Amino acid sequence: MNNEENGPLDNTAKLRQVGGTGGGLTFRRLQIFWAVANASSLTRASKQIGLAQPTVSQQIASLEDIVGMPLFERRSNSLELTEAGRQLMRHVQKVLESMQSLEDGLGAIGDGSRRTLRLAGLNSILRVLVPTAMEALHKKFSEIDYDIHESAPAEVIEMLYARRINLGLISSNSIAPASAGFEQIHICTDPYVLAVPSDLDLSGVTDPSRDLSAKDQDVLFRSIQFAFGTQHSRRVQAWYDGLMPGNRPFAQARSFEVAIGMVRAGLGICLAPAMSCVVGDRVIDGVRLYRVDFPARDVVALLPKQYLRQELYSCLIDELGAAGRTYAPPPASETPPFLLKPTPEFDPAS
To answer: Where is the HTH lysR-type domain (predicted)?
Structure first.
């Protein structure tokens, strides 16, 4: 590692030393630096940008040679920017924003060819909110077409970092508090419900072991869960453990829609966002919904901050927000008596 005896960067003086180290100051190196700075980890950054960790480490080392001083400090299991790194980050942010704006504007140059909006998100959010927003946006921007990816939250973040999409639609509950480098805009809230097979009637049940048959008890105590991420999975399991002692995780699915399909087949029950339980404006056949005391899903849009200065993206956000405001959760039955106990507190550190 280089020392900092030369002091902090003097504006961009150090950045002009681009010819002496392995390819110089390349755009790709700036992208890698930006990813590492926002991920605070070589491992996470390498996954997000699709490069091997040794390659990422080598590129950062080369960039430090060019600048002439360390850009990161190791703190426990994370990396933190040095003063030189923070100064470089301000320059890099402007460069990447300018390049993104150039790429987005190429379609409007010359013959005004069509522009493509690249979106990714959870299936239920894409199904319920995006079509309404697309219809409204088309009236203002008829030359726009769409490339839409159904993806898990972690994949959405990776695609944003890799600049393969312009905007992600996920739940803020499923990501780190700061998805650094991206603007996070609230779209709507989506309550959780308990989805059970339609022939499992929990109305008036105060004690499942007494009020339900052995067969129904077996179904009730098999939980089908969505593999959202470690913290979300632990929060869901804490809910089951606190309110339904003796439950057992029966299956993990990579989408709520697959989980709901298992519920329809009578394989178990699922704590799921209400959006995932509807087709159009109707509850999926073969499923019965109950209200529960569980934190609602906060649906958010994630996008690079500079996009909000562009009319197309600001209009898209407005239309998504309008679609979110008109969203009405599907009807659900009252909470079964045996689930009216206080919701157990979840300790993320436990």
So the answer is: 25-82
Query: What CA–CA distance (Å, rounded) separates 239 from 266?
Result: 21
Strands 167-171 and 248-253: unpaired
Do 199 and 332 meet the contact criterion of CB atoms below 8 Å apart? Answer: no
Bridge partner list, 245 = none
CA distance 7 to 5: 5
Query: In terms of pTM, does the model score above 0.85?
Result: no
Q: Report how far residue 299's alpha carbon sits from residue 172's, in angstroms, rounded to the nearest whole number.
A: 6
Q: Tell which wins on pLDDT, 26 or 327.
A: 327
Q: Which two tokens stand for residue 313?
A: 């993206």
pLDDT of residue 218: 95
Residue 236 lies in a domain: yes
pLDDT tens figures, 1-42: 443 333 444 444 444 444 444 557 788 888 888 888 877 788
C-alpha 138/C-alpha 141 separation (Å) is 5
Tell whether 248 and 303 lie within a shared domain. no
Place of tokens 């178990």: 268
DSSP H/E element including 47: helix 42-49
Are 59 and 29 contacting, i.e. CB atoms less than 8 angstroms apart? yes
What do you get for the CA distance between the two ends of the chain, in Å?
37
Chain position carrying tokens 């923070």: 86
Please report whether residue 215 resides in a domain: yes
Question: Which two tokens mark 17?
Answer: 């030393």
Residues in Cβ contact with 129 at an 8 Å cutoff, skipping those fewer than 6 apart: 169, 187, 188, 299, 320, 323, 324, 327
Contact 71, 64 (CB under 8 A): yes
Give yes or no: residues 202 and 275 share one domain: yes
User: What region, left, alpha or beta, does residue 50 occupy, with left being phi > 0 and alpha being psi -120 to 50 degrees?
Assistant: left
Instruction: Name the CA dihedral angle for 38, 44, 46, 49, rounded to a multiple of 10 degrees.
Output: -60
Q: Give the position of tokens 């593999």.
A: 227
